[in-house]
Amino acid sequence: MSINYAKRPEKKISLDDCWFYHVQDLPGLSKPTKGVFDLRESVDEFLGKVDFKNKTVLELGPSSGYLTFHMEKLGADVTSIDLDINSQTNWDIIKRVKNDWKKELKDFITYELSKARNAYWYAHKAHNSNSKLIECHINNLPDDVGFYDISTICTVLLHLQDPFLAMEKMLSHTKEKIIITELGGYNRIKSYRNIIRNFIQRFRPTPSPSMTFLPNQTRRPFMWWKLSPEIIVNIANILGFEKSTVTYHKQIVDGRTVWFFTVVCERTVPIKNCYY
Predict the structure, then answer these.
(1) Superfamily of domain 15-271, CATH level 4
(2) pLDDT in tens, the chain (276 residues)
(3) Among residues 182, 184, 183, which one has the least CA distance to residue 166?
(4) Where on the phi/psi map is residue 156: left (φ > 0), alpha (ψ -120 to 50), or beta?
(5) Are 101 and 93 in contact (CB under 8 A)?
(6) Is 218 exposed, middle or buried (0-12, 13-18, 19+ CB in 10 A)?
(7) Which of 43, 65, 177, 270 is 20 to 30 A off residue 154, Cα-Cα?
(8) What is the residue extent of each domain of the chain?
(9) CA dist 192 to 185, 188, 199, 207, Å?
C-alpha cells in the first residue's frame, strides 16, 4: 500500500471554515482561536516533558494541529496520521442499532472533522510549517512509512475500537520513545483530598491493567474506552518498550479543569529483534 500524503489546499481557507480542537496562538491573528482544549500553559506536561530537538516524530491524530506545530517549534520534524475525510471506510464509530449511525458519521465528518482539517491547514500555512500529513486509518498504516525517533498518541486511544492494534502499529515504527496521554488520574494525585485514599491504596494490590467499555445510548458514538495507565504500560512492555514513567497533570477543557495522565515508554528491545 502506497503512502497517501495530503497536500495543503490551494484554495484560501477562512476562519469561518475552521473548527479548532485546541486553542492556538497563530501568526497573523490578534487573539487566540477558540478551542475545546487549552493546553498552552501545561503543554510540556501533556507531552511528558520530552525533548523534541532534532527528533523525527510520528503523531497519531493531530486534529487541528496544535501539538504538531508545537513539537515542530521545539525542533521536531513531524509526520502526522489522520483519517481520510473523503473515505468512510474503517471508521471507529459505535454502531448503535437504535441510532442512524451512518447519519451520525456523515454529520461528524461534515461539521467537525472537515472543519478541523481546515483548521489544521490554516494553522499549517500560518506557521509556514514543514510538517507532513498521512491520510489513512492507523490500522492500515503502510510499512513503508519508515521509522521515527518518537511517536505520540494523545487522547486518541479512547476513540479507537482496537487500541492494542493502534499501539502495535505505532510502536513498530518507533525507535526511542512513545508518548501516550489519556483522560484520568485525579485520584492518583498527592493532594489533601486524596491523602486517606492514597494511604489506603498502599495496603491494596497494585491496580491491574484495565479498560472500561464506555459506549451507551447517551454518549457520542466515538468514545470506546477508559484506559488505565497500567494497561498502557503493560501493552508497551509486550511490544518492546519495557521502561515507562507515568505523570499526572491538569488541563483546561471547555473552560474547566480536567485531569490527564501521560505515559512515556522507552524502547528496550531493538526493532531488529522484534517480531511485529
Answers:
(1) Vaccinia Virus protein VP39 (3.40.50.150)
(2) 789 999 999 999 999 999 999 999 999 999 999 999 999 999 999 999 999 999 999 999 999 999 999 999 999 999 999 999 988 677 899 999 999 999 999 999 999 999 999 999 999 999 999 999 999 999 999 999 999 999 999 999 999 999 999 999 999 999 999 999 999 975 555 554 445 445 545 555 567 899 999 999 989 999 999 999 999 999 999 999 999 999 999 999 999 999 999 999 999 999 999 999
(3) 182
(4) alpha
(5) yes
(6) exposed
(7) 270
(8) 15-271
(9) 15, 11, 11, 21
Helices 114-126 and 66-73: crossing angle in degrees, nearest 10, is: 20
As given in the structure block, the three cell numbers for residue 117 are 482539517
Q: Can you list the alpha helix ranges (DSSP code H) found in the chain?
A: 43-46, 66-73, 101-108, 114-126, 163-171, 195-201, 229-238
Tell how strand 37-38 and strand 243-253 pair up.
Answer: antiparallel
Residue 237 in grid coordinates: 512492555
Query: Count H helices, E strands: the chain?
Result: 7, 10
The closest alpha carbon to 66, from 108, 114, 127, 151, belongs to: 127
Q: Residue 157 carries which DSSP code?
A: G
What is the rounded distance in angstroms from the CA atom of residue 259 to the CA atom of residue 189? 9
